[in-house]
Amino acid sequence: MRDNIYVDLILMLAPLSLAAVGGATGLYAPFQHEMVELRHWVTPREFIDLFAVARLAPGPSSMLAPMIAFKAAGFLAALVAAIALYLPSSALVYAVAKVWSRYRDRPWRRACEQGLAPVAAGIVLAGVMTLLRVVDGGAMSWITVAAVAALLTWKPRLHPLPLLGCGGALFLLAHAAGV
Fold first, then answer.
1. Could you read off the pLDDT of 45-83 as tens digits, one per residue?
2. DSSP secondary structure code for residue 136 in this structure
């Protein structure tokens, strides 16, 4: 008997929605694991292609999940995925914001914010590592990611457009050199 994809989407995405501390980047690793490795809704190559489209298209990059759901089962699955992904976290953020602003100057609030920073960084790192593993771009991909991470650590307010241009030039040079 075939599982119900709509129920699967809700049971998979609603908890992930609440755990996305680092934003959409923190969701890429679980998306890849669940949708590619466990459920085989898309191939690794299709995952990367849909990831690229989600990153380039206007709107949130977490639209990757509805795009995969659309590929797997059509429009209704994409709609269910979007609702399951955005409704729980939106409701939670709304409720927390109401309470959070009330305790603006409390020490425990600052401690919570400082404590969540490394958690968010770790979740984002897991997403990046998953993408690097799936793409299998070789040493050049890993070197580029390390260089960008170092540069953004040194200059966190650097606009991403120069990084995009430098990365593109680097890969063109590497391709021309046969690396």
1. 898 888 888 877 777 777 888 989 999 989 999 999 999
2. T
* Residue 131 domain-assigned (yes or no): no
Residue 173 lies in a domain: no
pTM, rounded to two decimals: 0.61
Q: What is the DSSP letter of 42?
A: S
Q: Which domain holds residue 11?
A: 5-104
Question: 83 near 66, Cβ under 8 Å?
Answer: no
DSSP 16: H
Nearest to 68 by CA among 85, 91, 87: 85
CA angle 55–136–50, rounded 5-degree value: 25
Report the chain's terminal Cα–Cα distance, integer Å. Answer: 48
In a domain, 71, yes or no: yes
Count of structural domains within the chain: 1
